[in-house]
Amino acid sequence: MKNIWHIFSGDMKRLVRNPFALIIAIGLCIIPSLYAWFNIYSNWDPYANTKNIKIAVATEDAGYQMDDGTTVNMGDSVIESLKENDKIGWVFTDTKDAALEGVYSGEYYAAVIISSDFTYSMYNVFREDFKGPTISYYENEKKNAVATKITDSAVSTLKQSINEQFIEVLASNIFEQTNHISEQMEENDKFAYFQSKLENLNENLIGYSKMIDTFIAGNGELSQAVAEAKGSIPGLSNKVSDGAKSFGTARSSLDDTKTSLNSFSENVNQTMTSINDSMNRIRDSINATNLAGDAQQTADSLNQAALDAVELQRELNRLQEHLKKVIVEESVSDDDRAVIQKIIETIESINGGATDIEKAISSINQIAMGFSGDSQTDAINTQVSGSMVADAINQSLSDMTQVLTTCSQAIANMQEMYTTSLVPQLNNVIDSMSQMLNNVSDILTRLDDTLGDMNSVFSGIETTVTGANDSLEQIQTVIDGVSEKLTKLLERLNSVEDDEKVQAFIEFMKGDPEGYGEFFSQPVLVTTEEVYPIPNYGSAMTPFYSILAIWVGGTILVALIKVKAEPKDLENVKSYQLFFGRYLLFFVMGQLQALIIVLGDIYILHCQILYPGWFWLVASLASVTFTLLIYSLALSFGDVGKALAVVIMVIQIAGSGGTFPIELLPAVYRNIYIFFPFPYAINAMRETIGGMYGSDYMKNLSELMIFAVVGLLIGLVIRIPFVKLNHFVEKRMEDTKMM
Question: Which residue of 159, 183, 278, 391 is surrounded by the most CB atoms within 10 Å?
């Protein structure tokens, strides 16, 4: 302790004995206070001089002529009210162009232009083409950042004032009309009729309220139905998908049917061809029969004709079986079924002809068999032409030829009927059914997509119904309120004599229109209760600039006073003794700086300080903390430590919450500000200016002193490993002959 005191006393003696050093020391104590005072004074009441900020105002309002012939111009009224407002430097220009030119040139910070239909819009609220009164605002943001905020505030105030005037005009007109109606009712003896209308109106309102209840209940049922429909969508979608699959299967079956029909048609055509071939062979066999020739050849031809007739019957039977299968199909129409039946009847007729041919051939064979044998051949050859047998055979052949002709014609007709009528009709039916199935399948596909969208549609309906219910409930509240007032009025009217009813109603309706207008323009009066009131902006900024000045003072001290003590008359001096021996000089000068700042804040600037003693205590402890931190940084790291002290100061100026609320600063400042001493010193000093709350003052001081402990750790512990490194850096800097 003795060595510490020896170092400190030696420093003080050398300081006092050297007038030049003493003057510099006194200057070091005063300079930080000047920094604080100038900044506080410049921010004392910055909004007191807003009248020097120029805002141009121009009106193009054409005015409005009322029903009684009176002309009003609310634009001129706004101009007159602004002329009485000296808070802003309003400049009234003759034209809009002059105002805008001033904004662009920088002569004015902003311009306000009142539109030509300003008054008209105020007095024609209830027109269908109503458009609210408007003003146009132009501001020069390049001229000054803070000034634009002030002009914005001024224009917002102007807008509020115009809105109040607008509502006042509207309400005044309404109540003037109401009073006029009341006076007419007082003059005319029609009150009984009017009262009945009021009663009807009240009944209607009650009915409307009940109707709204019904609507709300209906909406509830609708919501339930929508919810059920929404829940059934998945099942319905599955059914539609299954239906689409079924129609796909049916379409495939129809394609198979068409394929079968084509195959059947080919079979029928083949059968028809076989029948024609059989008929032709029978005809050829009959034509080849010649009794005048060889009897054996005649017999062979007749036998071949008989075989062909049997084959013809077989083909006809097969065709008939095919057609009988087709005629019973459900897909065959009645017209097609009639055609098929006609073909079957034709086949039966042809089949009968074939049977006749077969019988005739059998008869001829029996006659021919009577003359068979070699012994009788010559006799037949010589006698047959004139005999009875020859005539019979020729007659049978003629009959067979006629039957063949008839059958051939029937087969030709049947083939034409089948080819040109039946088959095309069946193909058309199948094609129509296929197209129908395609259309139904497309419809089902679109229906499935629609069902997918219905979910969102139903959700929208639910939202709409909910919103409608809310709106209906609000309307019902208004209707019930009006109905309640009408009920009270009617009860009042029914409780008085007839000659008093008009007066009672007039008392209910009458009032001061201007008073009502003023009320409705400002229906809510705001009462401001100041908590921890501070009379001016300068007093509110005192904590920030005073604390900042104390840090600046510590930075100046380490810049001009050596931080390393080098006593030559002491031996075996400990490092901590050297540390505290020289620090005491910084401590004393720091306390003098803090004291001068505090005295100037109180007695020169007259800042609001409710607790001067506590105010000085904050400044004193802040000086101890700051000088200890800065001194330790400079002693431990030399010029690097001094630069680090400046960097810490710059960071705290921006991010300590001294000017703007910390909540408005970027996230990086909100995250790191708690690791710096400024916020705790500033908050403690604010308690002494605005008023104390609980233990906040002591809490902030305690947190501030943590940084003093950090300063001691840096100067006494952390410094030791860096002594040689610091000495090396200082030596290299001296070698540059510049630092």
Answer: 278
